[in-house]
Specification:
The complex is a heterodimer of chains A (500) and B (97).
Chain A (H helix, E strand, L loop, with lengths): L2 E6 L2 H17 L4 H23 L5 E8 L3 E8 L13 H7 L5 H9 L2 E6 L5 E8 L5 H4 L11 H8 L8 E5 L5 H12 L11 H9 L3 E8 L4 E9 L5 E9 L8 H15 L4 E7 L4 H8 L3 E10 L2 E2 L7 E2 L2 E9 L4 E2 L9 H9 L5 E2 L15 E7 L4 E8 L4 H12 L6 E7 L6 H9 L3 E10 L2 E9 L13 H21 L1
Parallel strand pairs in A: 9-10, 15-16, 18-19
Antiparallel strand pairs in A: 1-2, 2-3, 3-5, 4-5, 6-7, 7-8, 8-9, 10-14, 11-14, 12-13, 17-18, 19-21, 20-21
Helix pairs in contact in A: 1-2, 2-4, 6-10, 7-8
Chain B lengths: L1 E5 L3 E6 L5 H11 L4 E5 L8 H11 L6 E5 L3 H9 L8 H4 E2 L1
Parallel strand pairs in B: 2-3, 3-4, 4-5
Antiparallel strand pairs in B: 1-2
Classes of the chains: A alpha+beta (500), B alpha/beta (97).
Chain lengths: 500, 97
């Protein structure tokens, strides 16, 4: 579960914050020593903030606790007096000989965490990001190298296309945390080392994600109780939507319609949980998953480039690709989907075409949707995907300080050497054409529509790609996905030309 | 919060929580010019750099204070190593069984 603390910047508050940090880390699956390391790191940062950023002044500190299947991140934000902790480098010799302990607290933080990042966002405050990865047993270390009857990955898609009722006696049940090890084994037996989602090789990570309800899914077992297939929805953390992913059918049980019944079950389970939609991130190295999504009434809305770094695909007729891009395919589960009143100027036609695919689910608000009078302040959230070397900026509010806030944020992340930056702009409440224009001037290009992506609202995604993209290796299936790709490529080429 | 026993030369404390700057300030206000300090860390999950610096300052002052530590958490030793003090501190003397 994600958490947020808002603290008065006083020494007396630190104990409460570290107690919470410790307990939260234990609840999220860390052992007590690791949780204590994170609590110590938080204590060090908070103490420095109280001592040096606020001194005798009053102020507040905000702490966000974020969880992913592979790591936790604690983000500490404050708006106190500017100070640059990176200027203070700890020197053990100086400490011992001259009693000079400058930089000791940050040295402690670096030692206790796997990654420590300091971001100075100027007037928008300072951020301290503490990352700790989960260490747990990898199923690949515990199972024999060789499993009989390995089939190609393509078979799993054939299984989706098989509309026949499953032959044999199978039991389909919702997954529980006790299924974690069977799921990891299924992944290993089916894909060996080539499955894209690394977390699925770690039973403990699967167990915690199911227990905390970050994902739900279905598992198919044979009459003898052995696992035959698994399919899950990963819930978004800031919106009532989920990603369909983690699909696997054990090779001996493929082409029996198991994937189809699992997908139907997932859609039912998602409706029961009140999700407003499901999305799939379909790889563009091939069109199999896009075709499957289409079969279940998903429609393409965006092309996100360089979603993760170089990968090798087992059993495909190609071996690797520089960057893995995905088409976002979306399936609405509500008929109360409001189409935004304002669509940004350069993409009005394309966005209308994308929305037209969902006519049956959309309605237009009865009011004329006049823009808000006072655009107010800009509020940008930053999410760093450390493993993917990318970042997502979410504009929660777009106000008259948009360009200034962007400049500060871009400057603060310059040194991270990211491969890609994604920027989500809210659609509907206020016109964002000038914001889009500003982002384009700064090297961003279109990605597309992200339906219901944050707080159940539609967002326009822009993307800035810092690596070379081979568009010939990006394959799209539907006409709309093709149109999106055409626009993305055109803007990418223009952006490259300008840079040159 | 801590449990305290003291005499003219000696201060014994049992910390009820972590050994951080708050605890340092409380110990400091009680220690005054005593020359021996024993800290029991049975309830502490960690010791911060501020606490390490405080103890280092006492031990290597012109008028040093003899420090004994009981039940230190594992992280205390990790931190000492990170700060490069593990060889300088005479841990066999400082850490009580």
């Amino acid at each position: 579960m994600e958490a947020h603390l808002y603290l008065e910047a006083r020494l007396q508050m630190i104990g409460s914050a570290t107690d919470f940090t410790y307990k939260w880390c234990v609840n999220m699956g860390f052992d007590q020593v690791v949780a204590a390391r994170m609590a110590l790191a938080v204590d060090e940062i908070l103490t420095d903030i109280v001592l040096y950023a606020f001194k005798d002044e009053t102020g507040h500190i905000e702490i966000w606790f974020q969880y992913t299947f592979s790591e936790i991140e604690i983000i500490i934000q404050e708006m106190g007096e500017p100070f640059d902790p990176e200027r203070y480098v700890y020197d053990a010799d100086k400490a011992m000989k001259e009693n000079n302990f400058e930089g000791a607290s940050l040295e402690s933080v670096r030692c206790m965490t796997d990654q420590f990042i300091f971001l100075n966002r100027g007037k928008d405050g300072k951020e301290f990001r503490l990352v700790k990865r989960f260490e747990s047993a990898d199923i690949r270390d515990r199972l024999p190298e060789k499993y009989p009857e390995q089939k190609d990955d393509n078979d799993v898609y054939d299984d989706m296309n098989d509309s026949s009722a499953p032959g044999g006696d199978y039991l389909l049940t919702p997954v529980t945390s006790e299924d974690a090890e069977d799921i990891a084994k299924l992944i290993y037996r089916s894909y060996k080392y080539s499955y894209s989602k690394e977390d699925l090789y770690f039973p403990r990570r699967i167990e915690m994600a199911i227990r905390h309800e970050y994902k739900f899914g279905t598992i198919v077992r044979t009459a003898a109780g052995g696992p035959a297939g698994y399919f899950a929805v990963i819930k978004s953390t800031d919106s009532m939507i989920g990603e369909v992913g983690e699909a696997v059918v054990s090779p001996p049980y493929r082409k029996r319609g198991l994937m189809k019944i699992m997908m139907e079950s997932l859609i039912d389970m998602s409706r029961q949980r009140g999700l407003k939609g499901l999305f799939g991130e379909a790889l563009t190295a091939h069109t199999f998953s896009q075709k499957v999504n289409r079969k279940f009434d998903f429609r393409s809305t965006a092309l996100v480039i360089a979603k993760s770094s170089r990968r090798t695909f087992k059993g495909m007729d190609f071996r690797s690709t520089e960057n893995v891009s995905v088409v976002i395919d979306f399936l609405p589960l509500t008929r109360r989907w409001m189409k935004p009143a304002h669509l940004p100027e350069p993409y009005t036609d394309l966005l209308n075409t994308i929305y037209d695919q969902f006519k049956a689910y959309l309605y237009r608000p009865s009011a004329d949707g006049s823009p808000e009078d006072d655009p107010g302040k800009t509020n940008l959230d930053l999410m760093i995907h450390h493993e993917k070397n990318s970042a997502l900026i979410i504009a929660r509010e777009v106000g008259n300080t948009f360009e200034l806030s962007c400049k500060r944020l871009f400057r603060s992340i310059e040194e991270l050497n990211l491969t890609a930056i994604y920027f989500d702009l809210p659609l509907g409440r206020i016109p964002i054409s000038s914001s889009v224009e500003y982002l384009k001037k700064n090297g961003f290009i279109l990605a597309g529509l992200m339906p219901f992506y944050h707080e159940e609202s539609d967002y326009l995604r822009m993307q800035k790609i810092m690596t070379d993209i081979e568009f010939d290796a990006i394959h799209t299936f539907s006409d709309v996905a093709g149109l999106i790709k055409k626009t993305v490529k055109k803007e990418y080429d223009e952006s490259r030309k300008e840079q040159a | 919060m801590m449990k305290v026993e003291k005499n003219k030369h000696k201060l014994d404390v049992i910390l009820q929580g972590d050994f951080n700057l708050n605890a340092v300030r409380q110990i400091s206000s009680l220690l005054k010019d005593r020359t021996e300090l024993t800290i029991d860390l049975i309830n502490a999950r960690f010791v911060t750099s501020k606490a390490v610096i405080y103890m280092h300052g006492l031990m290597y002052a012109d008028s040093p204070v003899t420090i004994k530590i009981k039940n230190p958490p594992k992280i205390f030793f990790e931190l000492l190593k990170a700060l490069g003090l593990h060889k300088m501190w005479n841990l066999e003397e400082i850490v009580q069984p």
